[in-house]
Design goal:
The structure is a single chain. The chain has a domain of 186 residues. Strands 1-2 form a two-stranded antiparallel ribbon. Helices cover 77% and strands 2% of the residues. The protein is mainly alpha-helical.
């Protein structure tokens, strides 16, 4: 039955579809094809999540070679949850891709764009679906190399510099990850994640294991842009094509955090993370510094893409903060924010794609008077901004509520105060955009410049799908909270 092959189809469909784009030279045809492929991946992820929730974990042995001798795809509630996030965002972003790229890329580059996009999607899905540690590295390289190419397609020459910076940092991070995986193999003789977990539990204190842990965690922190290893991210987000920024901001760092959770909790184990070395406290401190520093820097940005890029660094801090608490409640907060932040930043960066389409710039000065000229676009930025701040009835409130509850359970009142300070800083940088849009006159005389109109429906539709998702999942939290609790219960063995 087809249902038994869903784990491998999740990765194979976009991976095989990418080179087929070469056969479709017309921009609209290749867009239709990429959208169809992404939609198929989304349907597959929905079926996988439903199957996992109903029947439990899924193990798929490639080529009939049983693990640990063969490569295994292993799907549990955590995998399925991330697969749903990545494929849904990919599909929604692609709805606007054809219109947005018409203004930002020449026609002869569209085919190349969709090839790189589908390869990036396949890489991200492969990272999440595989149960083999070395395969994580392989798919990480597929997604990373295609990401460098996607960023370099930006119309500004600065996009090339941003892509090169990302290439250098990404290569360093990937090298650290590969060294960590190699040391794990040296200590255990296996690369299968489930087998690694069993064998590492039987190994007494070992310098090799400690070194593997250290190399791996540093490499992943570079990939997920944890402060102060985030320097590649602001320029990458600012100068990439708008749809690329929306896709990567909503998915790539989330997959990196998934890798951190998977290796720390599945392979090394909760006790190893919380009792071995200073890692828990170190991540806690870096997360807090990231929240406060990146939020402060965001206030002073005049390019709105860079502003929201630094906001993403701060939001990554919130996710790592929940993770570093080392409790089931903290993990729930992290998992909720994985989903919720994807919706927030997807909506905000897609709204910026609409501004770029009509205005041609996302400098703060370009937002003057847009509240009247592009009312639906600016309303979506208001909604996304309120979610970033954590206003009730938005997904941002849900994330911060569960994070604060987890902190209070540990008695960390001081950290709760810092979280609230981070929200106040978010109010300031969001307000700067709204002030320009609604309370400042246009910079130039409207009679002397082309009239700026609302963005086309093909861009507004995906923007508002994400906006409504921000509101819906801020009210009805059954899916996100129930799945997050199920995942936390599996790792901690208790119901939080």
């Amino acid at each position: 039955m087809l249902a038994t092959h869903l784990p491998v189809l999740q990765v194979i469909i976009p991976l095989l579809a990418a080179p087929l784009c070469v056969l479709l030279q017309h921009p609209r045809m290749v867009w239709y094809f990429a959208l169809l492929v992404s939609a198929a991946a989304f349907v597959t992820s929905v079926l996988l999540l439903q199957q996992v929730l109903e029947t439990g974990e899924i193990s798929y042995a490639l080529g009939g070679w049983a693990a640990p001798w063969g490569i295994e795809y292993f799907i549990d509630s955590l995998n399925a949850y991330l697969l749903l996030i990545v494929t849904s965002i990919s599909t929604i972003v692609l709805l606007a891709a054809q219109t947005s790229l018409a203004k930002e890329l020449p026609d002869d580059r569209h085919t190349f764009f969709y090839i790189a996009y589908l390869l990036c999607l396949a890489g991200l899905l492969g990272i999440v679906a595989t149960g083999d540690a070395f395969n994580v590295f392989v798919f990480l390289e597929i997604s990373s190399l295609s990401s460098y190419a996607l960023i370099a397609l930006g119309k500004s020459r600065k996009a090339l510099i941003a892509s090169y910076q990302y290439l250098i940092m990404g290569t360093i991070g990937a090298t650290f990850i590969l060294i960590g995986i190699g040391l794990m193999y040296m200590a255990t003789g296996t690369l299968n994640m489930q087998d690694l977990a069993l064998r590492l539990a039987d190994i007494p204190e070992s310098r090799t294991v400690y070194a593997a842990f250290a190399f791996f965690i540093v490499g992943v922190c570079i990939k997920l842009a944890l402060f102060p290893l985030h320097q590649w991210l602001p320029n990458a987000y600012a100068y990439a094509p708008s749809v690329v920024t929306a896709f990567l901001a909503a998915t790539a760092t989330k997959v990196a955090i998934y890798v951190l959770i998977r290796f720390m909790f599945t392979i090394f184990g909760v006790d190893f993370f919380t009792t071995t070395g200073p890692w828990q406290n170190m991540l806690l401190v870096l997360a807090l510094f990231g929240i406060l520093t990146a939020s402060t820097v965001a206030i002073y940005q005049n390019n709105v893409k860079r502003l929201f890029a630094y906001s993403s660094v701060a939001q990554i801090g919130y996710m790592i903060l929940g993770f570093s608490i080392g409790t089931a409640g903290g993990l729930i907060a992290t998992l909720l924010h994985l989903f919720n932040h994807a919706l927030m930043k997807g909506a905000l960066f897609m709204a910026l794609a609409a501004v770029t389409y009509r205005v041609g710039s996302v400098e703060l000065e370009s937002f003057r008077g847009l509240g009247k000229r592009m009312p639906w676009t600016m309303a979506s930025i208001v909604a996304g901004g309120l979610s970033l701040i954590g206003v009730p009835l938005t997904v941002g409130f849900i994330s911060k509520w569960y994070l604060i509850v987890a902190l209070l359970e540990k008695g960390w009142w001081f950290v709760v105060g810092l979280i609230l300070l981070g929200s106040l800083l978010a109010v300031i940088y969001v307000w700067r955009i709204l002030e320009a849009a609604y309370f400042s006159p246009p910079e130039n005389n409207p009679d002397e410049t082309p009239e700026i109109r609302e963005a086309p429906l093909s861009i507004l539709l995906p923007v508002w799908i994400l906006v409504f998702a921000n509101l819906y999942f801020g009210i009805d939290t059954r899916l996100t909270v129930d799945v997050s609790r199920l995942i936390a219960q599996g790792f901690f063995g208790v119901s939080p």
